[in-house]
Amino acid sequence: RTSDRMRVLGRSLFTSLSLVSSILPAQHAAAFLSPLPFVATPRPLVPGPRPAVSRARRLATMPPLRMGAATEGQDLKELFDLYEAPGEEFALSGVPTKLGLNKERGLVHRDGDWHRAIHVWLYTPSGELVLQKRSEKKDTFPGKWDVSVGGHVTSGEGVMHTAIKESEEELGVKVAEADLESLGTIATSLKGSSPKQGAFQCNEYKDLFLLRFGGRLEDLDFADNEVEAVDLKGWRDVEADMRKQLSPEGVELDGPYVPRPQ
Prior knowledge:
Largest sheet: 4 strands, mixed
Strand order of the largest sheet: 6-3-8-7
Order of helices and strands: HHHHHEHEHEEEEHEEEH
Number of strands: 9
Radius of gyration: 18 Å
Structural class: alpha+beta
């Protein structure tokens, strides 16, 4: 089962991008993906063709009202539920344990508290992945290329609800629970610094999902305060690009992608 393979791979030191790529068969990525019947269809919010996928060029073709939309990025006071650090129980069950506490987003990232997030990978039948370039207004890893859809789970909300909500908010893709294939939960740890947050330690339980994409990049209605651009790239190319961000000694180098977690 996909979820069983994903749980084993989740123990290694890879981002979910690398994890998704590594479970695809070496010769026929599409053969692995083809059993998923759902084709995600972007909702048409702006009439007419939209031939570009960068935010700057896209805004030039949009009505002035949309250009005036708020672009302040995340609310650092948003509340997250807190979880125990991963240990033997999580290794056996794959289920994070809640502490019964919540805390503001900015403080969670400052203090390195364990919290929950989702990653949704949109893929094509030919084995390509939809990538998003994170907005420069993001509080963590601004301007880096990342998973198709990513988001934190707000206090009191569920993982599946968040995956559905973030897919629509970030890319304008409407999905239902049955459309998403769960790949399991992994624990990752990343640190960095950004103008919005300052120094941060992002300790996350990530729930990973696959979603088949049969639309066009030009039709994705991505949120300007979340996403700078979108791209479509073969999973082999993405994996090769990420390996270039590692030195021969395995040290993470600065590059265009969100780095691998420790």
